[in-house]
Design a protein that fits this description.
Elements: E1 2-10, E2 15-24, E3 29-33, H1 40-47, E4 55-60, E5 63-64, H2 69-75, E6 76-79, H3 91-101, H4 106-119, H5 135-146, E7 153-157, H6 165-178, E8 183-188, H7 191-197, E9 200-205, E10 208-214, H8 215-222, E11 227-234, H9 241-249, E12 254-262, E13 266-273, H10 280-289, E14 292-299, H11 304-312
Parallel strand pairs: 3-8, 3-9, 6-7, 7-8
Antiparallel strand pairs: 1-2, 1-4, 4-5, 9-10, 11-13, 11-14, 12-13
Bound molecules: adenosine-5'-diphosphate (ADP) and magnesium ion (MG).
Length: about 325
Amino acid sequence: MIKVQDLTKRYARTVAVDQISFEVAKGQIVGFLGPNGAGKTTTMRMLTCFLPPSAGTATVAGFDVLEQPLEVKKRIGYLPETPPIYPEMETVEYLRFVGKLKGLSGAALEKRVDYVCERCAIVDVRTKLLGKLSKGYRQRVGLAQAIIHNPDVLILDEPTAGLDPKQINETRDLIKDLAGEHTIILSTHILPEVEQTCEQVIIINKGKLVATNSVRNLQAQARGAELVVVEVAGRTGPLDAAIVQHKLQQVGGVSQVVCKQQSDSHAVFEIESEKGRFVRGDLARAVVQAGWDLNELRPTAMTLEEIFLQLTGSEAPSEEKAAPQEVLQ
Ligand SMILES: Nc1ncnc2c1ncn2[C@@H]1O[C@H](COP(=O)(O)OP(=O)(O)O)[C@@H](O)[C@H]1O
Ligand SMILES: [Mg+2]
């Protein structure tokens, strides 16, 4: 459904997007991940025909973003990072306005407006001014305008940024719901969101593609370095977690030991091994030989956040940054 080949965007001094290539199949929901400034918004703006690529190509449903922008726009719904704000417009007025720009009119337009209001749970703010809406409602109106023309593809730039946890859950559920009908690319810096919502991830860093894979494969790949959870208990009396931690740290091939939980009698550690070292046997022996009980020892998957750190060498950012307003067309 989406095909990107060597896509590049240069600004005067920066290469914002540097020869990235990826494909998204029909019906997939893909997470677009990367630290601030990685080039996510720039890529999305090229896919939605707001910004011409400097080099490379991108097609949506077989139509080229540069050569057939009208065909592309018909098939894409876009929620920009900073949606345009028309504070003096009522919700339905705004949806009609966007719908008309997308070529809808008359009864068909009214039908779609009703449908998206229902779908995005904004019926109760139909006649409210956009300027008076809470951030959560405004975001849902943003999603409603993105799907007004029933596009094949949805491109959502940080759809949950700036929302409170309850609103995040509601928006996430709505997006998952929409995934049945549309192919979706969403960018986010909230990594668990990708784990919960997406099947595939595309990770970019400094304009370059670092990984494109299924969430499950990425986790398997990263497991080359083992992550093991170990629960240790004192056999005869109280247990000093610090002593246990020190002991585990000394096992060959162990790179990091983090105490996750402790009480008088037991402690739980998360242990990371060096890449290519498998330390479970040695960990078990060390615990038993020291006279403690080994209550549990199991390998665990790395979280996407840990994988992300490994691939990009940078923390996932949590700060918002201002972006220029975008005009919908
Ligand atoms: N209009 C612009 N002019 C010059 N540089 C820009 C412009 N827009 C973005 N950039 C630069 O391009 C890079 C990628 O930005 P962006 O696509 O917004 O990243 P992200 O959305 O991943 O945070 C950044 O270094 C940013 O400073
Ligand atoms: Mg951005």
